[in-house]
Amino acid sequence: MPLNHTNRIMKWDDIDDSALVQLVYVSTLTLGSRLSTSIFDEVEGHARNYNQQHNITGTLCYGNGHFLQCIEGKKSDVFNLQERIFVDSRHKNVEVLLLQVINHRSFADWRMRLLFLERWLWSPATKKQAVQLSPFLPFAPHGWSSDRTEQFLQIIKTFDSPPHIKAAGITYNALGNMVRHIAAPHQAFLIIQGFLSILLVVALILLYL
């Protein structure tokens, strides 16, 4: 279905001080952050603590080296959080996809949850449930239109619901759980090591020819 490329990026000065706002931005992890063993725990833990104190809700998605974060709350609280996030040296290429006034929160029960959008790590149940996400994977959210961003958020809302709703969240297979906690932060390092290993094998072959 063709997407309507409506621009919904308001200016902060045009938003009433008492308004409830939604900010969605994307960014790319720096190489140093990808090599960190604790980057995801740090980001998720800090976000939950800060957001609970300032009544901010939303979701944080990661995949293919990219973050997409949706932040909802009072104008002043979201603006102050944006100022903190955008100067964080752990990521780069920050781009705002949505900034709009909303009547109600889309993630009212989410203080901040980190969802890994690495399809190869998912359990069979999640792969079946996530068929609607196929058009958005591999995850590369930079340059998304406002409407495409909205469509993505509507789908993501179904993946992790409040306890009183029987809905399966994103789950991972055994390999996925291991990689998510151990290997995922080192993906750049592992790729480089794999490439160097291939070069070493080629060099040895040429040496003995």
TrEMBL record:
- Gene Ontology molecular function: blue light photoreceptor activity; FAD binding
Arranged from A to Z, the UniProt key words for this protein are: Membrane, Transmembrane, Transmembrane helix
Q: Where is the BLUF domain?
A: 20-113
Question: Domain of life of the organism in this record?
Answer: Bacteria
Transmembrane segment boundaries: 188-208
> What InterPro entries does the database record attribute to this sequence?
Acylphosphatase-like_dom_sf, BLUF_domain
Q: Which Pfam families match?
A: BLUF (PF04940)
The name of this protein is: BLUF domain-containing protein
Organism the protein comes from: Psychrobacter nivimaris
Q: What is the lineage of its organism?
A: Bacteria, Pseudomonadati, Pseudomonadota, Gammaproteobacteria, Moraxellales
